Amino acid sequence: MSEKAKRVAAAAAVELVEDGMTLGIGTGSTAEYFIELLGQKVHAGLSVSGIATSDRSAALCRRLGISLTTLDDTPVLDLAVDGTDEFDGALNLIKGGGGALLREKIVAGAAKRFVIIADGSKQVDVLGAFPLPVEIIPMARQPIVQRLTDLGAAVTLRLDAEGAPFRTDEGHWILDGDFGPTISEPARLAGDISTWPGVVEHGLFCGMAERILMGSGDQLTIITG
Ligand code: 5RP
């Protein structure tokens, strides 16, 4: 994981931003480089408004003077930029390492273009080495643990720093399902999990990303699938 590579990817994404655009603004360390560089452009006169995918990213935007809007006022976004935990050659993603998958998927779904920024460590042949986050209603925990286990995942309830169940910005819990690198049909798994009662959202983003801007050292690679 290279900070320089994350910054290279974030800088390439900032180049896609034009004056007057409405933006989806992601969550995580790579997205924070994007926010920081976007803030510099806003400071220099660029006019944009954004929807942040987490309270943490929203706070950083406010600190840097980036105007925020809502999906009520701006239901269609020009461009969403976010990080990822893994991506495969068909641009399927596992997201949600930072716990923001629900808002991230809502914002990505509202955007005309969804662009991922990542360092090279996120590229995999087959998804699943990164445990798949599944955001749930607490009451449904055990039935969903059972279903994930039946599919071959080792499941853990995500905890916060105090050892209590981690709460997402929307107040839900997250189960992390470790499948190992075996998710060869991510759209199929995504379809299955989406039908389970008590699942609010899962971290498989299939058919959503337009491109990956991948930094490796100081080199940029654009992957369009
Ligand atoms: C948060 C996410 C992040 O985009 C993902 O975890 C990548 O984070 P980082 O850029 O810090 O590696 O999905 O829910």
Summarize the structure.
The protein is of the alpha/beta class and 225 residues long. The chain has 6 helices and 14 strands.
What does this structure look like?
By secondary structure, the chain is an alpha/beta fold. It folds into two domains: 2-123 and 206-217, Rossmann fold, CATH 3.40.50.1360; 132-197, Alpha-Beta Plaits, CATH 3.30.70.260. It is 29% helix and 27% strand. The strands form three sheets. It has a seven-stranded mixed beta sheet with strand order 3-2-1-4-7-13-14. The protein has a four-stranded antiparallel beta sheet with strand order 9-10-8-11. Strands 5-6-12 form a three-stranded antiparallel beta sheet, with helices on one face. It is globular and about 55 Å long. The site of ribulose-5-phosphate has 18 residues, from helix 2 and helix 4. Ribulose-5-phosphate is lined by residues 26-31, 82-85, 95-101, 104.
Identify the notable features of this structure and list them briefly:
225 residues, alpha/beta, Rossmann fold, Alpha-Beta Plaits, seven-stranded mixed beta sheet, four-stranded antiparallel beta sheet, 14 strands, 29% helix, globular, binds ribulose-5-phosphate
Q: The CATH topology of the largest domain is what?
A: Rossmann fold
Q: Estimate percent helicity.
A: 25-40%
Tell me the fraction of residues in β-strands, as a range.
25-35%
Largest beta sheet: strand ordering: 3-2-1-4-7-13-14
The secondary-structure class comes to alpha/beta
Return the domain count. 2
> How far do the termini sit from each other?
22 Å
Could you spell the SSE succession in H and E letters?
A: HEHEHEEEEHEEHEEHEEEE
